[in-house]
Write a structure and sequence with these properties.
8 strands; 3-stranded antiparallel beta sheet; 399 residues; 46% helix; single chain; alpha+beta; hpI Integrase, Chain A; Double Stranded RNA Binding Domain
Length: 399
Protein backbone atom coordinates (compact mmCIF):
# COMPACT_ATOMS: atom_id res chain seq x y z
CA UNK A 1 0.00 0.00 0.00
CA UNK A 2 1.56 3.27 -1.14
CA UNK A 3 2.07 5.88 1.53
CA UNK A 4 3.23 9.49 1.41
CA UNK A 5 4.15 11.55 4.46
CA UNK A 6 4.74 15.26 4.98
CA UNK A 7 5.67 17.24 8.08
CA UNK A 8 3.83 20.54 8.60
CA UNK A 9 1.75 22.40 11.14
CA UNK A 10 -1.70 20.81 11.13
CA UNK A 11 -4.45 23.36 10.51
CA UNK A 12 -8.05 23.11 9.34
CA UNK A 13 -7.20 24.81 6.06
CA UNK A 14 -4.44 22.34 5.24
CA UNK A 15 -6.55 19.32 6.21
CA UNK A 16 -9.52 20.52 4.14
CA UNK A 17 -7.19 20.90 1.15
CA UNK A 18 -6.23 17.20 1.19
CA UNK A 19 -7.98 15.04 -1.41
CA UNK A 20 -8.74 11.53 -0.23
CA UNK A 21 -6.46 9.09 -2.09
CA UNK A 22 -7.99 6.39 -4.28
CA UNK A 23 -5.60 3.93 -2.66
CA UNK A 24 -2.91 3.94 -0.02
CA UNK A 25 -2.65 6.74 2.50
CA UNK A 26 -1.48 10.30 2.93
CA UNK A 27 0.03 11.27 6.29
CA UNK A 28 0.53 14.82 7.56
CA UNK A 29 2.74 14.86 10.66
CA UNK A 30 2.39 17.82 12.99
CA UNK A 31 5.61 19.76 13.45
CA UNK A 32 4.41 21.34 16.72
CA UNK A 33 3.58 18.07 18.50
CA UNK A 34 5.87 15.19 17.46
CA UNK A 35 3.92 11.95 17.22
CA UNK A 36 0.65 13.65 16.29
CA UNK A 37 -0.52 13.23 12.70
CA UNK A 38 -3.43 13.15 10.30
CA UNK A 39 -3.95 10.00 8.22
CA UNK A 40 -6.04 10.29 5.03
CA UNK A 41 -7.25 7.10 3.34
CA UNK A 42 -9.86 6.29 0.73
CA UNK A 43 -12.58 6.31 3.35
CA UNK A 44 -11.84 9.20 5.72
CA UNK A 45 -9.42 11.54 7.44
CA UNK A 46 -8.45 10.60 10.99
CA UNK A 47 -6.10 11.92 13.64
CA UNK A 48 -3.55 9.41 14.95
CA UNK A 49 -0.66 9.15 17.37
CA UNK A 50 2.51 7.37 16.26
CA UNK A 51 5.21 7.10 18.91
CA UNK A 52 8.14 4.73 19.27
CA UNK A 53 8.96 3.97 22.90
CA UNK A 54 11.73 1.54 23.85
CA UNK A 55 11.89 0.25 20.30
CA UNK A 56 8.16 -0.42 20.08
CA UNK A 57 6.01 1.63 17.69
CA UNK A 58 2.66 2.58 19.20
CA UNK A 59 -0.13 3.56 16.80
CA UNK A 60 -3.31 4.94 18.33
CA UNK A 61 -6.33 6.42 16.57
CA UNK A 62 -7.37 9.66 18.25
CA UNK A 63 -10.57 10.28 16.29
CA UNK A 64 -12.10 11.08 12.91
CA UNK A 65 -11.68 14.56 11.46
CA UNK A 66 -15.04 16.31 11.59
CA UNK A 67 -16.30 15.11 14.95
CA UNK A 68 -12.83 16.10 16.15
CA UNK A 69 -11.40 19.54 15.46
CA UNK A 70 -7.64 20.00 15.11
CA UNK A 71 -7.43 21.58 18.58
CA UNK A 72 -9.50 18.83 20.21
CA UNK A 73 -7.44 16.12 18.53
CA UNK A 74 -4.15 17.78 19.47
CA UNK A 75 -5.26 17.98 23.11
CA UNK A 76 -6.31 14.31 23.13
CA UNK A 77 -3.05 13.32 21.39
CA UNK A 78 -1.03 15.18 23.99
CA UNK A 79 -2.80 13.17 26.71
CA UNK A 80 -2.11 9.88 24.90
CA UNK A 81 1.55 10.76 24.35
CA UNK A 82 1.88 11.63 28.03
CA UNK A 83 0.45 8.27 29.08
CA UNK A 84 2.77 6.45 26.68
CA UNK A 85 5.78 8.36 28.04
CA UNK A 86 4.78 7.44 31.62
CA UNK A 87 4.30 3.81 30.66
CA UNK A 88 0.57 3.88 31.41
CA UNK A 89 -1.74 1.49 29.61
CA UNK A 90 -4.17 3.10 27.19
CA UNK A 91 -6.72 0.37 27.81
CA UNK A 92 -9.04 0.50 30.79
CA UNK A 93 -7.38 -0.80 33.94
CA UNK A 94 -9.13 -2.64 36.79
CA UNK A 95 -12.31 -2.61 34.72
CA UNK A 96 -12.63 1.18 34.69
CA UNK A 97 -14.28 2.50 31.54
CA UNK A 98 -13.02 5.26 29.31
CA UNK A 99 -15.46 8.10 28.70
CA UNK A 100 -16.03 6.80 25.16
CA UNK A 101 -17.09 3.37 26.43
CA UNK A 102 -19.18 4.99 29.13
CA UNK A 103 -20.95 7.13 26.50
CA UNK A 104 -21.73 4.02 24.46
CA UNK A 105 -23.08 2.31 27.58
CA UNK A 106 -25.25 5.33 28.39
CA UNK A 107 -26.71 5.45 24.88
CA UNK A 108 -27.40 1.71 24.76
CA UNK A 109 -28.69 1.25 28.30
CA UNK A 110 -30.58 4.49 28.93
CA UNK A 111 -30.81 7.07 26.12
CA UNK A 112 -32.12 4.63 23.51
CA UNK A 113 -35.54 4.85 25.20
CA UNK A 114 -35.68 8.64 24.99
CA UNK A 115 -37.16 10.71 22.18
CA UNK A 116 -34.12 12.96 22.48
CA UNK A 117 -31.76 10.08 21.68
CA UNK A 118 -30.39 11.57 18.45
CA UNK A 119 -30.01 15.02 20.03
CA UNK A 120 -28.03 13.57 22.93
CA UNK A 121 -25.88 11.51 20.58
CA UNK A 122 -25.09 14.73 18.72
CA UNK A 123 -24.23 16.60 21.91
CA UNK A 124 -21.71 13.93 22.82
CA UNK A 125 -19.60 15.18 19.90
CA UNK A 126 -18.73 18.20 22.05
CA UNK A 127 -17.12 15.74 24.47
CA UNK A 128 -15.07 13.73 21.97
CA UNK A 129 -11.78 15.05 23.41
CA UNK A 130 -12.58 13.10 26.61
CA UNK A 131 -13.02 9.77 24.80
CA UNK A 132 -9.65 8.32 25.85
CA UNK A 133 -9.94 9.57 29.44
CA UNK A 134 -10.87 7.30 32.31
CA UNK A 135 -14.03 8.36 34.13
CA UNK A 136 -12.08 9.08 37.30
CA UNK A 137 -9.84 11.49 35.36
CA UNK A 138 -12.73 13.87 34.59
CA UNK A 139 -12.97 16.50 37.32
CA UNK A 140 -15.51 19.17 38.17
CA UNK A 141 -13.03 21.73 36.83
CA UNK A 142 -13.03 19.93 33.47
CA UNK A 143 -16.83 20.03 33.29
CA UNK A 144 -17.00 23.67 34.41
CA UNK A 145 -14.34 24.69 31.88
CA UNK A 146 -16.19 22.96 29.04
CA UNK A 147 -19.51 24.54 30.06
CA UNK A 148 -17.90 27.98 30.21
CA UNK A 149 -16.20 27.55 26.82
CA UNK A 150 -19.40 26.46 25.06
CA UNK A 151 -21.40 29.17 26.82
CA UNK A 152 -19.37 32.01 25.31
CA UNK A 153 -21.16 31.53 21.99
CA UNK A 154 -24.06 29.16 22.73
CA UNK A 155 -25.23 29.46 26.35
CA UNK A 156 -28.41 27.45 25.83
CA UNK A 157 -26.50 24.67 24.08
CA UNK A 158 -23.92 24.72 26.88
CA UNK A 159 -26.71 24.23 29.42
CA UNK A 160 -28.05 21.24 27.49
CA UNK A 161 -24.60 19.63 27.43
CA UNK A 162 -24.26 20.21 31.18
CA UNK A 163 -27.71 18.71 31.79
CA UNK A 164 -26.69 15.67 29.74
CA UNK A 165 -23.49 15.24 31.77
CA UNK A 166 -25.42 15.53 35.03
CA UNK A 167 -27.70 12.70 33.93
CA UNK A 168 -24.84 10.55 32.66
CA UNK A 169 -22.65 10.91 35.74
CA UNK A 170 -25.62 10.45 38.08
CA UNK A 171 -26.30 7.13 36.36
CA UNK A 172 -22.58 6.35 36.49
CA UNK A 173 -22.74 6.63 40.28
CA UNK A 174 -25.91 4.51 40.41
CA UNK A 175 -24.27 1.86 38.23
CA UNK A 176 -21.23 1.72 40.50
CA UNK A 177 -18.85 3.16 37.91
CA UNK A 178 -18.16 6.38 39.84
CA UNK A 179 -18.04 7.38 43.49
CA UNK A 180 -19.26 10.94 42.92
CA UNK A 181 -20.47 13.01 39.99
CA UNK A 182 -18.14 15.75 38.67
CA UNK A 183 -21.09 17.62 37.11
CA UNK A 184 -22.67 18.96 40.32
CA UNK A 185 -22.57 22.48 41.78
CA UNK A 186 -22.07 24.14 38.38
CA UNK A 187 -24.47 27.00 37.66
CA UNK A 188 -26.41 27.10 34.42
CA UNK A 189 -26.29 30.17 32.19
CA UNK A 190 -29.41 32.37 32.41
CA UNK A 191 -31.94 31.62 29.68
CA UNK A 192 -34.56 34.04 28.39
CA UNK A 193 -37.81 32.50 27.19
CA UNK A 194 -38.46 33.22 23.53
CA UNK A 195 -41.65 35.15 22.78
CA UNK A 196 -41.47 35.63 19.01
CA UNK A 197 -44.63 34.95 17.05
CA UNK A 198 -46.02 35.98 13.68
CA UNK A 199 -47.75 39.36 13.99
CA UNK A 200 -51.05 40.20 12.21
CA UNK A 201 -49.29 42.38 9.64
CA UNK A 202 -46.72 39.61 8.98
CA UNK A 203 -49.12 36.69 8.50
CA UNK A 204 -50.26 37.60 4.93
CA UNK A 205 -46.62 37.62 3.77
CA UNK A 206 -46.00 34.25 5.40
CA UNK A 207 -49.10 32.68 3.82
CA UNK A 208 -48.11 34.04 0.40
CA UNK A 209 -44.64 32.52 0.75
CA UNK A 210 -46.12 29.21 1.90
CA UNK A 211 -48.46 29.17 -1.10
CA UNK A 212 -45.46 29.48 -3.42
CA UNK A 213 -43.79 26.34 -1.95
CA UNK A 214 -43.68 23.69 -4.68
CA UNK A 215 -43.51 20.63 -2.42
CA UNK A 216 -47.10 19.89 -1.29
CA UNK A 217 -45.90 17.87 1.70
CA UNK A 218 -43.64 20.64 3.02
CA UNK A 219 -46.34 23.26 2.49
CA UNK A 220 -49.06 21.18 4.16
CA UNK A 221 -46.82 20.18 7.08
CA UNK A 222 -45.98 23.81 7.87
CA UNK A 223 -49.65 24.81 7.62
CA UNK A 224 -50.49 21.98 10.03
CA UNK A 225 -47.88 23.34 12.46
CA UNK A 226 -49.46 26.79 12.19
CA UNK A 227 -53.12 25.75 12.41
CA UNK A 228 -52.83 23.13 15.19
CA UNK A 229 -49.84 24.35 17.20
CA UNK A 230 -48.43 20.81 17.19
CA UNK A 231 -44.69 20.32 17.47
CA UNK A 232 -42.63 19.80 14.31
CA UNK A 233 -41.75 16.16 15.08
CA UNK A 234 -45.39 15.34 15.86
CA UNK A 235 -46.47 16.78 12.52
CA UNK A 236 -43.73 15.22 10.39
CA UNK A 237 -44.38 11.74 11.84
CA UNK A 238 -48.18 11.95 11.60
CA UNK A 239 -49.79 8.81 10.12
CA UNK A 240 -53.03 8.42 8.19
CA UNK A 241 -54.12 5.78 10.70
CA UNK A 242 -54.22 8.44 13.40
CA UNK A 243 -56.20 10.98 11.36
CA UNK A 244 -59.99 10.84 10.98
CA UNK A 245 -60.92 13.37 8.29
CA UNK A 246 -64.64 12.58 8.63
CA UNK A 247 -64.68 13.33 12.36
CA UNK A 248 -62.01 16.01 11.95
CA UNK A 249 -59.66 14.61 14.63
CA UNK A 250 -56.00 13.72 14.98
CA UNK A 251 -54.77 11.36 17.68
CA UNK A 252 -51.10 12.04 18.41
CA UNK A 253 -49.87 8.69 19.83
CA UNK A 254 -46.95 10.08 21.79
CA UNK A 255 -46.12 13.66 22.71
CA UNK A 256 -43.31 15.41 24.55
CA UNK A 257 -45.30 15.12 27.76
CA UNK A 258 -45.25 11.33 27.39
CA UNK A 259 -48.95 10.83 26.77
CA UNK A 260 -51.25 10.65 23.75
CA UNK A 261 -53.21 13.74 22.70
CA UNK A 262 -56.51 14.00 20.79
CA UNK A 263 -56.71 17.20 18.78
CA UNK A 264 -59.63 18.54 16.71
CA UNK A 265 -58.64 19.52 13.18
CA UNK A 266 -59.94 22.89 11.94
CA UNK A 267 -62.09 22.73 8.80
CA UNK A 268 -59.59 24.42 6.43
CA UNK A 269 -56.89 21.96 7.52
CA UNK A 270 -59.22 19.00 6.91
CA UNK A 271 -59.61 20.22 3.33
CA UNK A 272 -55.84 20.65 2.94
CA UNK A 273 -55.24 17.08 4.12
CA UNK A 274 -58.06 15.74 1.94
CA UNK A 275 -56.35 17.20 -1.12
CA UNK A 276 -52.93 15.89 -0.08
CA UNK A 277 -51.55 13.15 -2.40
CA UNK A 278 -51.24 9.73 -0.81
CA UNK A 279 -48.26 7.48 -1.40
CA UNK A 280 -49.06 3.79 -1.78
CA UNK A 281 -47.70 1.63 1.07
CA UNK A 282 -46.51 4.73 2.93
CA UNK A 283 -48.37 5.27 6.23
CA UNK A 284 -47.23 8.89 6.68
CA UNK A 285 -49.11 12.05 5.71
CA UNK A 286 -46.01 13.98 4.73
CA UNK A 287 -43.91 11.78 2.49
CA UNK A 288 -40.13 12.05 2.41
CA UNK A 289 -37.68 11.93 -0.48
CA UNK A 290 -38.27 9.35 -3.20
CA UNK A 291 -41.66 8.55 -1.65
CA UNK A 292 -40.11 6.82 1.33
CA UNK A 293 -41.00 7.19 5.01
CA UNK A 294 -41.75 10.74 6.21
CA UNK A 295 -40.27 14.22 5.87
CA UNK A 296 -37.29 14.57 8.17
CA UNK A 297 -35.62 17.91 7.74
CA UNK A 298 -37.60 20.88 6.44
CA UNK A 299 -35.27 23.54 7.83
CA UNK A 300 -33.82 24.36 4.39
CA UNK A 301 -37.29 24.78 2.84
CA UNK A 302 -38.40 26.85 5.84
CA UNK A 303 -35.35 29.08 5.42
CA UNK A 304 -36.40 29.90 1.86
CA UNK A 305 -40.04 30.51 2.89
CA UNK A 306 -39.28 32.82 5.81
CA UNK A 307 -36.77 34.77 3.70
CA UNK A 308 -39.39 35.33 0.99
CA UNK A 309 -41.81 36.45 3.69
CA UNK A 310 -39.29 38.90 5.14
CA UNK A 311 -39.29 37.05 8.48
CA UNK A 312 -35.66 35.88 8.85
CA UNK A 313 -35.87 35.53 12.65
CA UNK A 314 -39.01 33.37 12.77
CA UNK A 315 -38.38 29.69 13.57
CA UNK A 316 -40.63 26.72 12.87
CA UNK A 317 -41.37 26.35 16.60
CA UNK A 318 -42.58 29.97 16.58
CA UNK A 319 -45.58 28.79 14.54
CA UNK A 320 -46.74 26.90 17.64
CA UNK A 321 -46.34 30.06 19.69
CA UNK A 322 -48.17 32.03 16.98
CA UNK A 323 -51.27 29.86 17.33
CA UNK A 324 -51.27 30.27 21.12
CA UNK A 325 -50.83 34.03 20.82
CA UNK A 326 -53.62 34.47 18.28
CA UNK A 327 -56.02 32.35 20.33
CA UNK A 328 -55.13 34.34 23.45
CA UNK A 329 -56.02 37.50 21.54
CA UNK A 330 -59.60 36.26 21.13
CA UNK A 331 -60.05 36.11 24.89
CA UNK A 332 -59.92 32.30 25.21
CA UNK A 333 -58.81 31.16 28.66
CA UNK A 334 -55.26 29.99 29.29
CA UNK A 335 -56.68 26.65 30.42
CA UNK A 336 -58.16 26.03 26.97
CA UNK A 337 -54.95 27.17 25.25
CA UNK A 338 -52.94 24.82 27.44
CA UNK A 339 -55.24 21.94 26.51
CA UNK A 340 -54.90 22.66 22.79
CA UNK A 341 -51.11 22.84 23.00
CA UNK A 342 -50.98 19.87 25.40
CA UNK A 343 -48.96 21.73 28.03
CA UNK A 344 -48.12 19.62 31.05
CA UNK A 345 -47.69 22.60 33.38
CA UNK A 346 -49.82 25.74 33.59
CA UNK A 347 -46.77 27.99 33.87
CA UNK A 348 -45.83 26.97 30.30
CA UNK A 349 -49.10 28.48 29.05
CA UNK A 350 -48.66 31.63 31.14
CA UNK A 351 -46.49 33.22 28.43
CA UNK A 352 -49.61 33.84 26.33
CA UNK A 353 -51.10 36.10 28.99
CA UNK A 354 -47.91 38.13 28.62
CA UNK A 355 -48.12 38.18 24.83
CA UNK A 356 -51.81 39.12 24.71
CA UNK A 357 -51.68 42.86 25.38
CA UNK A 358 -55.31 43.68 24.46
CA UNK A 359 -56.77 43.31 27.99
CA UNK A 360 -53.89 45.36 29.39
CA UNK A 361 -54.34 47.99 26.69
CA UNK A 362 -58.06 48.24 27.46
CA UNK A 363 -57.38 48.79 31.17
CA UNK A 364 -54.67 51.38 30.49
CA UNK A 365 -56.85 53.20 27.91
CA UNK A 366 -59.76 53.45 30.34
CA UNK A 367 -57.49 54.59 33.13
CA UNK A 368 -55.74 57.19 30.96
CA UNK A 369 -59.08 58.55 29.81
CA UNK A 370 -60.27 58.79 33.39
CA UNK A 371 -57.09 60.47 34.60
CA UNK A 372 -56.97 62.94 31.72
CA UNK A 373 -60.69 63.68 32.03
CA UNK A 374 -60.21 64.53 35.70
CA UNK A 375 -57.31 66.78 34.73
CA UNK A 376 -59.35 68.49 32.04
CA UNK A 377 -62.35 68.98 34.36
CA UNK A 378 -60.09 70.52 36.96
CA UNK A 379 -58.60 72.79 34.32
CA UNK A 380 -62.06 73.90 33.10
CA UNK A 381 -63.27 74.53 36.64
CA UNK A 382 -60.16 76.59 37.36
CA UNK A 383 -60.61 78.61 34.17
CA UNK A 384 -64.30 79.16 34.95
CA UNK A 385 -63.45 80.41 38.45
CA UNK A 386 -60.91 82.86 37.03
CA UNK A 387 -63.47 84.13 34.52
CA UNK A 388 -66.04 84.70 37.25
CA UNK A 389 -63.52 86.56 39.39
CA UNK A 390 -62.45 88.73 36.50
CA UNK A 391 -66.04 89.55 35.61
CA UNK A 392 -66.85 90.43 39.19
CA UNK A 393 -63.89 92.82 39.46
CA UNK A 394 -64.58 94.42 36.05
CA UNK A 395 -68.30 95.14 36.61
CA UNK A 396 -68.92 98.73 37.92
CA UNK A 397 -70.82 99.08 41.12
CA UNK A 398 -74.35 100.44 40.46
CA UNK A 399 -75.24 103.45 42.50
Amino acid sequence: MASTATRTRLTKRKIDAITLPKSGEVILRDQDLPGFALRATKGAKAFVVEKRIKGRLHKVKVGTYGPFTVDQAREAARDILGKLARGESLSSSRGELTFEKFSELYLERYAIRKKSYLHEKGRLKHLAHWNTWKLSAISRDDVAELHSKLGKTHPVGANRVLALLRTMFRLGVAWGLLKTSPATHISMFPETSRDRFVQPDELPRLLTALKAEANPFVKSALLMCLLTGARRTEVLTAKWADVDLTAGTWRIPETKSGRWHLLPLPGPLVQILTDLPRQKDNPYLFVGQHGKRHLRNISKAWGVIRTKAGLPDVRIHDLRRTLGSWIAGTGVSLQVIGKILNHKHTDTTAIYSRLNLDPLREVLDLNATKMLTIGENHHHEDQSQKTDDATRHATPVMQ
